Amino acid sequence: MKEDIETFLNYLATKKNRSLNTLAAYRNDLNQLISYIKEEKAKGIIKPKSNDELLKRYLLNLSEKSYSSATLARKIASAKSFFKFMVDSGKLRESPTQNLISPRVAKHRPKFLSSTEYQRLLAEPAKLSTPESKRDMVMLELLYATGLRASELTSLNVEDVDLERSCILCIHGSSKRRIPFDHHTNQLLRNFLKNDRLDLLFNRKENALFLNRRGGRLTRQGFWQIVKNYASKAGFNTKITPHTLRHSFAARKLQSGADLQSIQQILGHSYISSTRIYKQPLSSLR
């Protein structure tokens, strides 16, 4: 089944344009599922063909691990998608997950930063004058100006920045999109590329736009920690992540009169339903 999972993941990457993060989540979920099935069948308690019973026990096992309803729903969705793929490809007659019911997931209104709150966050790296803090300011400004995902931001290369046309080339999975930015962001990037980035550059062949202190590409996890640290220093009592800045971008676009379709295109949502969440009454962190 390991080979089937890899074939399925390749299908999601090439045909469905799923992101690397989504593929990693699916791989983890499915490997967890097959490991459980192997362990249960090895006990000899359940007959090998009792797939429905196995899956029921698997779900019970997941619920006992105190996963959130959102995580449980995702793990069930992973299993359903995989077994549907197996049926569609002719390797199974029917999906053993067809009777599985996903837990109800409460939809939370996205939180965003007001302009004042954003400036309060930005003031933290501005207090410093290190190569890292200068890099962090540019990353925060670019995220706030474009609505990029953290993974997309840290995946940017120098050649993805087009200063002449004031846009960046963003690659998400197998899809590509160009996202414009304003004059202020253009000047920040221009100065960063000419000066501040060089302070962290040890290898001239390194093409990552944002570098860590060792001269390598800054990771998504590293950037999440950076945002968390600045939010803590700024005295925010609620959780702030790079996704909060993505929500803030979408909120500003909507408030300035942009339509959902244009916001969907910039954010890179595959479905308009993902963008409609911004039509709900939005709430700032105050």
Describe this protein's structure:
The chain has 286 residues and is mainly α. The protein folds into two domains: 2-88, DNA polymerase, domain 1, CATH 1.10.150; 111-284, hpI Integrase, Chain A (Orthogonal Bundle). It is 55% helix and 6% strand. It contains twelve helices and five strands. It has helices at 2-15, 20-43, 51-63, 69-88, 115-126, 131-146, 150-155, 183-194, 220-233, 242-255, 260-267, 272-275; strands spanning 111-112, 161-162, 167-172, 175-180, 283-284. A three-stranded antiparallel sheet has the order 2-3-4. Strands 1-5 form a two-stranded parallel sheet. A hairpin with a 4-residue loop joins β2 and β3 (167-172). α1 (2-15) packs antiparallel against α2 (20-43), α2 packs across α4 and α6 (131-146) runs antiparallel to α8. The mean pLDDT is 86.
Short structural summary:
The protein has about 290 residues and is mainly alpha-helical. About 55% of the residues lie in helices and about 5% in strands.
